[in-house]
Amino acid sequence: MDDLKSRLTAAAREADLSRMDTADAYNFIVRFVKDSVRTPVQTEGRRAYYLSSEFLMGRLTEANLFNLGIRDSVYEALREAGFDPERLLEIPDAALGNGGLGRLAACFLEAAATHRIPLFGYGLRYRYGLFKQDLAAGYQREEADDWTKYGDPWSDRRESDAVEVTIGGERIRAVPYDMPVYGYEGAVGNLRLWQAEAVRPFDFAAFDAGRYAEASAASERASRLTAVLYPNDNTPEGKQLRLSQQIFLTAATVEDVLRSQERAHESCASLAEYAVLQLNDTHPVLAIPMLITALERRGMPFAEALETARRTFAYTNHTVMTEALEVWDAALLQRLSPEAMGAIGKIQQALEREYPDRTADMNIIDGGRVHMARLATYVSFAVNGVAPLHTEILTRRVLAPWYERTPGKFSNKTNGVTQRRFLAVANPPLASFITERIGDGWVKNFSEVEKLRPYLSDAPSLRDLAAVKRENKQRLCRRIAERCGEKLDADFLFDIQVKRLHEYKRQLLNALSIVYFYQGLRDGSIPDFTPTAFLFGAKSAPGYHRAKGIIRYILEIAKRVNGDPLCEGRMRVIFVPDYNVSWAEVLIPAGDLSEQISMAGTEASGTGNMKFMMNGAPTLGTYDGANLEILRAVGEENNYFFGARAEEIIAEREANAYDPRRLYAEDGALRRAVDTLIDGTFDDGGTGAFRDLYTSLLDGAPWHRADHYRVLGDFRSYVEAKSRAGADYRDTEGYARRALANIAASGEFSADRTVKEYAKEIWRV
Ligand code: 26W
Question: Contact at 8 Å (CB) between 104 and 548?
Fold first, then answer.
């Protein structure tokens, strides 16, 4: 290791790294590391493949170096050669994902590599990742995310493994780029990302004839395919390009999997013995018809091909929001991939034979549309949800007819996150705090954090933990000063809500509560308010106007509060622009209170909730998703739970008993906060965006009930819980004890536990 360090120092001096621009330095460093390290690769035997349209990898370099055990020596070598490793922060995240689903995929690959579970990721190599968010105008504007502008030295192009895919009659080349995924003291896994290219990239005949546009037309058509990640989280885009992306991903992946099957085991007849294809939501579900047609092309009869598929696929559902369930127009699919549509037709016939008594909501093809979740559920041998409540909602409601017929297929696999990236790497002071007390076994075996329990009654440890949190808050203050030009006081309670902007996640509830507290500060009705910084980070889908209106509203609140001398030393509101994995890594370690306030029954699991918990932030949350598991693991006394439960909400809906107008009429303080949406307190630039929010809360629309996500219904219990957290925070030792109780109980929320469950119960690898 010291050998690596001295060789790197020498090489970096020789190359004069300190004078290089960051891109050159980055490429130099990564090449050096890749040439120097040897890590075992998993090859033989049964493999699991993780098919996903999204992999939200974040920064690659620090996590890779950490897992290789060489981060500190590499950084020292760079410093000795006159290169500040902080410069690597300029390199953009690999943000090939939208939110929870894509980040989960990244956590799984890392955890599997760490525990030598043979899991191989397959996705798309988007030229532009999730858009960059600019808030300077007072609302969200989007910019392209050129994530490879400093190069992509971690990846290797594998020209020899390219395959051809047909979409809408045109042949397109799929060229794989392999991104190594280093496990901690483990193996190296792989993420294979397909890039679309033209079969004939340039037409010289057209060029010679002066038809320049035509000469490169094929290239341009092909590169459009993987040009950009669709920025919608939870709202399917019924667009031809999106469907083409799915065809491209699945056709190329299936071909690649079959090639390695044939290389290792001669024939595809035994595919199901050697391969399991895990479908990350419905986006890669076309892999089912693609596999069947690929097997038929190799001479296998349809019935056997379907049977093989039924023993090879497993499906994870990540949302119960009806508007997020993917449905494709059958005629469009027929045009873009007649083979896939043909196979789906035959699968529908098999379904009809198998279940003559089926209900209409089981049909895969229904009213000229293809229902992807039904296709996935019918063909897969395993179907899972991502937290117990979510799985219950799936089996009882969303997929109930399937559960009745094949209950054995269904299981729960509660999500997890990697404690290496989100604690060991992101929070060095807390990592040291833990390791000094219980050793470093937790990095690989996170259940060991329960050994911290004895320190709950150790006052010096609680003081140290409070100091750790303070250090992280100061780091965040510096980052916010640099990036947002805002001053923040590390003595404030840091109350943080970071996640995609969605009505169901209820950032609007948080915003209204801030207005409520602000108004209470102004009129003196809340004299004992604990100084609090309310921090937000959230991107809205570009076309989701109501979500954009909520961002604008929060920015207006921030402007008012931060500019009011009365709030000096008492309240701050910060909306960090361009929230991403890198921001998460500085925000989460600094959290005193973790906002997880989705309406019960809407957030499938949540994973940010777990990241905050392991970094010692109590949850201010609803009885939803994995919040319920957090509550079970650490107890009501260490968290702040509030609001209606999922069953209550269902019963209330069935009785048509929810009446936001009444709440508004009866609760004067609530009304005063809500009225700021229409009384001119805040300026929406004449867009009507704030009035739309007001209307959505009180009137709804013909196609949507008023206050669909029960913002007003949970408001009182929310501000009550938030006030309790504020009051408790004044007792530094008591609050540190809650933080430590959360850390000590977070062992089960490691992605290591989750992937091991998948490996044992579904993948059987
Ligand atoms: C095609 C449109 C679309 C895009 C994304 C539909 C649905 C999605 C995802 C399913 C949304 C998503 O990211 N779901 C999140 O998955 C996480 C990992 O399981 C969970 O923790 C979150 O609760 C869930 O919202």
Answer: no
Ligand 1 close to Cβ of residue 54 (< 6 A): no
User: Is 235's pLDDT higher than 90?
Assistant: no
The secondary structure element, H or E, covering residue 354 is: helix 338-354
CATH label, 41-58+92-138+152-178+186-415, candidates 3.30.1330.10, 3.40.50.2000, 2.60.40.420, 3.40.190.10: 3.40.50.2000
| Residue 1: per-residue pLDDT | 61
Question: Mean pLDDT over residues 696-717, rounded?
Answer: 94
Atom of ligand 1 nearest to the CA of 607: 21
Is 2's pLDDT higher than 90?
Answer: no
CATH architecture of 428-643+713-744: 3-Layer(aba) Sandwich (3.40)
Q: Output the CA 653–ligand 1 centroid distance in Å.
A: 24
pLDDT digits (tens, 9 = 90+) for 296-305: 999 999 999 9
**Where does CATH 3.40.50.2000 sit in the chain?**
41-58+92-138+152-178+186-415, 428-643+713-744
Catalytic residue among 61, 607, 619, 676: 607
Query: Is this model's pTM higher than 0.85 or not?
Result: yes
Q: Known catalytic residue: 505?
A: yes
Mean pLDDT, residues 46-50 taken together: 97
Percent over 90 (pLDDT), the chain: 96
Mean pLDDT, residues 375-391 taken together: 98
| Amino acid in the structure at residue 180 | P
228 lines ligand 1 (CB under 6 A): no
Q: Is 385 in the pocket of ligand 1 (CB under 6 A)?
A: no
Answer whether 183's CB lies under 8 Å from 189's CB.
yes
Q: Which of 52, 103, 229, 234 to mutate to test the pocket of ligand 1 (most atoms within 8 A of CB)?
A: 234
| Nearest-CA residue for atom 6 of ligand 1 | 234
Residue showing tokens 């100091």: 467
Q: Is 319 in the pocket of ligand 1 (CB under 6 A)?
A: yes
Relative to beta strand 619-621, strand 593-596 is: parallel
Residue 473, token pair as written in the block: 């808050």
Q: Which residues contact 413 (CB under 8 A, 6 or more apart)?
A: 316, 384, 385, 386, 754, 757, 758, 761, 762
State the DSSP code for 397: I
| Structural contact between residues 61 and 109, judged by C-beta atoms closer than 8 angstroms | no
| CA dist., res. 222 & res. 226, Å (int) | 8
Residue 539 designated active-site: no
**Is any atom of ligand 1 closer than 6 Å to the C-beta of 110?**
no
Residue count of the chain, please give it: 765
| Ligand 1 midpoint to CA 100 (Å) | 6
Tokens of 18: 């300190």
pLDDT tens, position by position, 625-635: 999 999 999 99
Q: How many angstroms separate the CA atoms of 674 and 686, rounded? A: 18
CB 607 less than 6 A from any atom of ligand 1: yes
pLDDT at 41 over 90: no
φ, ψ for residue 213, nearest 5 deg:
-60, -45
